[in-house]
Amino acid sequence: MVLVVLGFICGMENTEAFMREAIRLSIEKMQAGMGGPFGAVVVRNGEIIARGYNQVTSSNDPTAHAEVDAIRKACAALGTYQLTDCELYTSCEPCPMCLGAIYWARPRRVYYANTKYDAAQFGFDDQFIYNEIAVPLEHRSIPMQQMLRQEAQVAFQEWQKKMDRQDLN
Predict the structure, then answer these.
(1) Count of alpha carbons within 13 Å of 11, Cβ hemisphere only?
(2) Best label site of 67, 85, 94, 105, fewest CB within 10 Å?
(3) DSSP secondary-structure letter at 127?
(4) What is the bridge-based pairing of β-strands 8-11 and 2-5?
(5) Among candidates 113, 118, 117, which has minimal Cα distance to 16?
(6) What are the structural domains of the chain?
(7) From the candidates 67, 87, 93, 151, which is the catalytic residue?
(8) Which helix (H) or strand (E) holds 51?
(9) d(CA 130, CA 135)
(10) What is the tens place of the pLDDT at every residue in 93-137?
(11) Which of 107, 25, 122 is CA-nearest to residue 66?
C-alpha cells in the first residue's frame, strides 16, 4: 500500500525503514556501551529530524531514554516543544516516563517494535511503575509528602498573570 500525501510517498516501505533505523540505533549504541538496547527516531514529512538512543548507564541519568533523547533533539531542531506534525519510531513500546514525554510532545503517531513484555523478559520490567501509578499516594513504595502548597501556588498565580506566557496545552 502506498499513499501520496503532499508530494511525499508514505508507504509501508518508508515506515519500515524508519523503524529499522530505530532498531539499528538500539543495537549499535548498546554495543558501543552507551546504554540499554533502545533506539528512536522522530520523522517529519518523510524525513528523520532526530535520532535518539538510551544513555542511562553512560550518562548516569535514569531519564536518558531513547524516546526522550529523540524528542529533545527534534524539539531543539524544529524550535518547538510540540511535535504535532511528526511521528515517533521506537525500538520498544515506551515506558511510563517516555509515554509522559510523548503525550507532552504530542506526535501524531507512535510506532514501536518490541513490546513491554518482550523488554521484561530481558530485565527491563516497567510493570512496577504501572502498578505504582495505579495506587493512591499514601500506599506507594516511595513515600510522597505534600508541603508548602500555598507558597508554591504563588508560582502558578504569577504564571497566570504573565502576559508573554506560552500555554503548554
Answers:
(1) 7
(2) 85
(3) H
(4) antiparallel
(5) 113
(6) 4-114 (3.40.140.10)
(7) 67
(8) strand 47-53
(9) 9
(10) 999 999 999 999 999 999 999 999 999 999 999 999 999 999 999
(11) 25
Q: How far apart are CA 119 and CA 54, in angstroms?
A: 14
Say which range, 24-28, 42-46, 69-73, 133-137, has the weakest mean pLDDT: 133-137
**Number of neighbouring beta carbons within 10 Å of residue 50:** 22
Q: Is 158 known to be catalytic?
A: no
- One-letter amino acid at 19 equals M
With residue 36 as reference, give the H or E element that holds it: none
Cell of 106: 504530542
- Within 10 angstroms of residue 96's Cβ, the number of other Cβ atoms is 14
CA 83 to chain centre: 11
β-pairing, 8-11 with 86-92? unpaired
